[in-house]
From TrEMBL:
Species per Swiss-Prot/TrEMBL record: Streptomyces prasinopilosus
Protein known as: N-acetylmuramoyl-L-alanine amidase
SMART domains the record matches: Ami_2
BP terms from Gene Ontology: cell wall organization; peptidoglycan catabolic process; peptidoglycan turnover
Domain N-acetylmuramoyl-L-alanine amidase stretches: 77-206
Domain of life of the native organism: Bacteria
Keyword Hydrolase: yes
UniProt keywords, alphabetically: Cell wall biogenesis/degradation, Hydrolase
EC number(s) reported in the record: 3.5.1.28
Catalytic reaction(s) noted: Hydrolyzes the link between N-acetylmuramoyl residues and L-amino acid residues in certain cell-wall glycopeptides
Pfam family, one: Amidase_2
InterPro entries for the chain: Amidase/PGRP_sf, Amidase_domain, NAMLAA_amidase_2
Length: 226
């Protein structure tokens, strides 16, 4: 729209000036308040990074009700405040290339330098080792780590028999809950395999991972959750 035509009488001009000054004052106050809110939110996200201060957390709390808690080594993840500091919009599927117990031991080893948030066993059990609000070192790509939840699955990529019904169903329920919590679309753009992460040299979840089946299970579980 074009500029509003100015009034031709003196009273009108004075009125416009008064309105303009008032609008400026009100607008300035609103902008200042908005800036204060942004500053407060930023401080809320950053205060726990001050040396000697940690964000309060309850030990052993899990983000998925069916999971049991086993803590990963602090060396395999970094503390964060997601989704406030990093938005979560992706789930990344992995396969352990080993047993359930060996994956747990690896993630508890500070020298391993990697871990996922969850491990799903062939029997359907789910163990959480890193809180979802924290950044796990699982994708081999910093940006993807910051915006994703990582889920390991017990087995080997060249053994289709390792990918059991119980595993698919438990993992699908877990992924559906994650998608519901962060409003992540249930599609292959936002639920991906480790092999699809840019720069990775991993091939999991491998050629035997049934994406069509898995996505159907996730959608069904997501609908039930909704």
């Amino acid at each position: 729209m074009g500029e509003r035509r100015a009034s031709t009488n003196r009273a009108g001009k004075g009125g416009d000036r008064r309105i303009g000054r008032r609008a400026l004052l009100v607008g300035g106050a609103a902008a200042a308040a908005g800036t204060a809110v942004l500053a407060r939110d930023e401080l809320g996200r950053l205060w726990w990074r001050v040396p000697g201060i940690e964000k309060p957390r309850e030990p052993g709390v899990v983000d998925f009700a069916d999971a049991r808690w086993v803590a990963a080594s602090d060396a395999n993840w970094r503390r964060a405040d997601r989704p406030d500091d990093f938005g979560i919009d992706m789930v990344i599927v992995h396969v352990t290339q080993g047993s359930f117990d060996s994956a747990v031991r690896a993630f508890q080893d500070p020298g391993h330098q990697a871990a996922t948030h969850y491990i799903v066993g062939q029997d359907g059990r789910v163990t959480q080792m890193i809180r979802e609000l924290d950044v796990a070192y699982h994708a081999g790509n910093r940006g993807y780590n910051e915006r994703s939840i990582g889920i390991e699955h017990e087995g080997f990529v060249d053994r289709p028999q390792d990918l059991t019904d119980e595993m698919y169903e438990a993992s699908a329920r877990l992924t559906a809950r994650i998608c519901a919590r962060y409003d992540i679309p249930v599609d292959r753009k936002h639920i991906i395999g480790h092999i699809e992460v840019p720069g990775t040299d991993h091939t999991d979840p491998g050629p035997h991972w049934d994406w069509d089946r898995y996505m159907k299970l996730v959608r069904r579980a997501r609908t039930a959750t909704a």
